[in-house]
Write a structure and sequence with these properties.
This protein is an all-alpha fold. It has helices at 8-27, 38-62, 65-72, 76-82, 86-106, 114-131, 133-144, 151-174, 183-199, 201-208, 216-233. The longest helix has 25 residues, at 38-62.
């Protein structure tokens, strides 16, 4: 039986059907659909990278799908095949970001020595400030808006981890290895002093001036913060 000749409408519709299939797979990565192809994953990565750039500059409210599509180098309809809504893109970014943010604290080992563990945590946080400034600004923007899109992650994942590590710090204090202090505010202080170098990078470099605002500023910060926290956490001799 001879093959039926396809009309021009059929030929035009074919790419559209393909895009829709790709979009369905991209939009429902955990549903009962085929795994994403390499090309689909690459397109998602391009979109997420572009979105990170746009969101970190303009915040969630100021960012638009058009801006993200432009930075990604694709048409708006093509982007929407993969992420139908701006909220979905932002949610994916924030979930990945929170996981990255939690990783250094997760590595704090209760069986280790407290001073090396805390020193390593400070340095890992500074490395993140150096290597992930856009992610830090994205997180700060979300916090300033009241964290409406990730509040559940903060109240569950982040809180549970901080509760766990606060108990580790308290254990070291009970053993006399650390000076007695509030473990939660200690963690907050490390966050504040290290993330400052990402969120206020322009200010830091401007104040330090040309002679000190290069990559060495992070090592300078690490040495200072280690001295600051280690001094404050050193147990005082008994009777003093």
């Amino acid at each position: 039986m001879p093959a039926t000749k396809k009309s021009s409408a059929d030929l035009t519709a074919a790419p559209k059907r393909q895009h829709k299939a790709e979009a369905k797979a991209a939009a429902h990565p955990h549903g009962k659909v085929r795994p994403l192809t390499r090309i689909q994953r690459e397109k998602q990565d391009v979109i997420l990278e572009a979105a990170l750039e746009v969101f970190s500059m303009h915040g969630f409210r100021g960012a638009t799908i058009d801006q993200i599509a432009e930075v990604a180098g694709m048409s708006k309809p093509n982007l929407l095949y993969y992420f139908p809504r701006k909220e979905e893109i932002h949610r994916r970014l924030m979930a990945a970001l929170l996981e990255t943010w939690l990783a250094p604290l997760k590595e704090m080992d209760a069986t280790g020595d407290p001073f090396p563990e805390i020193r390593s945590y400070i340095r890992r946080k500074l490395e993140m400030a150096r290597d992930y400034p856009r992610e830090s600004r994205l997180f700060a923007n979300e916090m300033l808006q009241g964290a409406p899109r990730i509040i559940e992650m903060i109240e569950l994942d982040l809180k549970n981890l901080v509760d766990e590590k606060a108990q580790v710090l308290l254990g070291w204090m009970d053993e006399g290895k650390l000076a007695r202090t509030d473990p939660y505010h200690l963690i907050f202080s490390i966050w504040a002093t290290t993330q400052h170098y990402a969120d206020f990078d322009v200010q830091v470099r401007a104040v330090l001036g040309p002679s000190r605002n290069g990559e060495g500023r992070f090592e300078d910060a690490a040495r200072y913060l280690e001295q600051l926290f280690m001094h404050g956490l050193t147990p005082k001799p008994a009777g003093r």
